[in-house]
Each structure stands twice: as C-alpha cells, then as structure tokens.
UniProtKB/TrEMBL annotation:
UniProt cross-references to PANTHER family, sorted A to Z: CALCIUM-BINDING PROTEIN KIC, OS06G0683400 PROTEIN
Name used for this protein in its record: EF-hand domain-containing protein
Organism listed in the record: Quercus lobata
Database matches in Gene3D superfamilies: EF-hand
GO MF terms held by the record: calcium ion binding
InterPro entries, sorted: EF-hand-dom_pair (IPR011992), EF_Hand_1_Ca_BS (IPR018247), EF_hand_dom (IPR002048), KIC/PBP1/KRP1 (IPR044205)
PROSITE patterns noted in UniProt: EF_HAND_1 (PS00018), EF_HAND_2 (PS50222)
Gene that specifies this protein: LOC115958314
Lineage top rank: taxon: Eukaryota
Residues annotated as domain EF-hand: 64-99
Signal peptide positions (record): none
Keywords on record: Calcium
Length: 120
C-alpha cells in the first residue's frame, strides 16, 4: 500500500535544502532538533498526534488536517509506537526532501570512490 504524502511535504522540499546549504550539516541537525523540541509532548518526550496538532502552527502548519497529521506520524513511525522520537523525526524530514537525499547519495558516492582510490 502506497503511503499518503502530507500536504506539507512541499514546504520541506522548498526549505530544507536551503537550510542545509546555509547552516551546514551540524547546523541543520541542530535546527531539526529545535523543530523536534517545538513539537514534542513534554511529558512523553516524543511527538504524539496531540502534540503535533497542538504545536504545528508554530511551524506554519496550522492548515493541515488531522488526516495529514496522522499520515505524517505514520510515515515516520519506524518502531510502530504511534509517535515520533527525535531520530524518527529527523529521518522523516530528510525523507520528505528528495533534493537533500540526492545530495546525500552523491556525497556518499564521492566518499566511497575516494576511499577506493586510496587502496589502489
């Protein structure tokens, strides 16, 4: 079954690569952690449906439907607990940005080729 893509995907595709270019890798991860902290349920330490619905307006996502929010949680919830921990959230943000994923693959390919040339 193909997963549904939340309407917000376009927003992340537009801005995440720009953030990566301006902030660098460490800065981008720091900003993703800040985003996680804005959405997290303070008592549970994870992003729940309720915390996402309550806090998403801070990220400009106030127009998302409950279905969109549930879809986002489902898309990133690798351990099946119905919530997103910090790692799941960061991975989801990268997955929602195909341009960043492509850049990551290119960097990995370059690193592998350089390592291979070192041994030849």
């Amino acid at each position: 079954m193909a997963s549904q893509t939340p309407q917000s995907q376009t927003q992340f595709q537009d801005f995440l690569p720009i953030m990566a270019q301006k902030l660098g890798g460490d800065g981008l991860i720091g900003e993703l952690c800040n985003g996680f902290n804005l959405l997290v349920d303070g008592d549970k330490g994870v992003i729940t449906f309720d915390s996402l619905r309550r806090n998403s307006a801070m990220l400009g996502l106030q127009d998302l439907s409950d279905e969109d929010l549930r879809s986002m949680l489902k898309e990133g919830d690798f351990d099946g607990d119905g919530a997103l921990n910090q790692m799941e959230f960061c991975v989801l943000m990268f997955r929602l940005s195909p341009e960043l994923m492509e850049e990551s693959y290119l960097l990995l390919d370059d690193a592998i080729q350089q390592e291979f040339q070192t041994y030849n």
